[in-house]
Amino acid sequence: EKSCSVRKPCISPMRNFFCFAILLRTLVCEVNLDQSLNLWAFVTSHDAATGYLQGTDAVTAVAKTQRTSLKGQLDCGARAFDLRPAVDTTGQVVMNHGQVIVPTALATALQDAKSWAQGHPTELVLIYISHCYSFVSNIEISCNNTMFTSVFSSVGIPLLSDCARVNSLTVRSAMELSTLNGGGHILGVMYCVQENYVAAQSIGCYVQAQGKSCYGASASPDPFTQLAAYLTATSSAASPPSRGLWMLQAIWQYDDNQVILSLSAQSSFLLDEQRSGLNLRAAGWAAGYAAVNLFEVNDVCDAAQALSDMARARNGQAPLNVTL
């Protein structure tokens, strides 16, 4: 038997009000490949394509949720991507975050992930595609379109759109389906994920009525309390669907008002996460959850080791030293 030692990160708010260890048991490294895929913990990059966005303008500030490419995010411990294909005005297949175009080719991002996976042949990577967009007609369109699916085919990444088949997957069958030429495992899934979205009014960073936010010298505890309650309820034994993939959105949510407040504070989606220390706190919360599947975060490279340790401990995997 090989003992899995798990790091115990310390969670500390901005002003050192308190610091406590995440208590994770020492686990025996026995991965159950025959468990349902919806019980496998994936550290998931929210709007992963935005890692390719460049610039410091206001639009980028409120669109960019990741700081690096898919390869960089994998190095940081991400094992699943929320990826949103798009077609630009010239007919090229790129990516998007809402109505913000990410001009990098979808094929480039997929090849980045494939190259990484071939160098890490024991790791399972999931790519979840949804919210496909046309910048020709400026509307959301179906992802089940040959202009998108053909890119996956050309790169050599399998893409499943049959949700009944996705729902029946075990970790073992997912590994078998996702085997790449040259080694490694990436499985694309079109839709077929219960996102469990909650509106920004419930779990936004900024508390306008109090003139406070989720960070700083006068940080309000309310955003954390509300987000923790949502995550705990969603992860409880009764909440996750008995079949199918499902998500925990461990992120601050944004509507127009939250966006304005973030920009007014000279902040951004990335800075809101970093300043609040949300990822480190969320990794601590998730260590005790009844179940975790797609654990979605902004800036997957912030508190990357804690996030990776949490997911791998749940899966019975030995911890890895993530690369930032």
Q: Could you please describe the fold and organization of this structure?
A:
With 324 residues, this protein is α/β, with parallel strands linked by helices. Helix content is 31%, strand content 17%. Helix 8 (222-235) runs parallel beside helix 11 (278-286) and helix 11 (278-286) runs parallel beside helix 12. The longest helix has 14 residues, at 222-235. The protein has 12 helices and 17 strands. Strands 13-14-10-6-5-17-16-15 form an 8-stranded parallel sheet, with helices on both faces.
Mean pLDDT: 90
Major β-sheet profile = 8 strands, parallel
The computed structural class is: alpha/beta
Low-pLDDT ranges: 1-28
Number of distinct beta strands: 17
From the N-terminal CA to the C-terminal CA, the straight-line distance is: 30 Å
What oligomeric state do these chains adopt?
single chain
SSE order, one letter for each helix or strand:
EEEEEHHEEEEHEEEHEHHEEHHEHHHEH
Strand content bin: 15-25%
Q: Helical region count?
A: 12
**Helical content (DSSP H or I, runs of 4+):** 25-40%
How many whole angstroms does the radius of gyration measure?
19 Å
Shape: globular
Adjacency order of strands in the biggest sheet:
13-14-10-6-5-17-16-15
Please describe the structure with a list of short key phrases separated by commas or semicolons.
324 residues; alpha/beta; eight-stranded parallel β-sheet; five-stranded mixed β-sheet; 12 helices; 17 strands; 31% helix; globular; disordered N terminus
Structure summarized in a few sentences:
With 324 residues, the protein is of the alpha/beta class. It contains twelve helices and 17 strands. The strands form four sheets. Strands 13-14-10-6-5-17-16-15 form an eight-stranded parallel beta sheet, with helices on both faces. A five-stranded mixed beta sheet has the order 9-8-7-11-12.
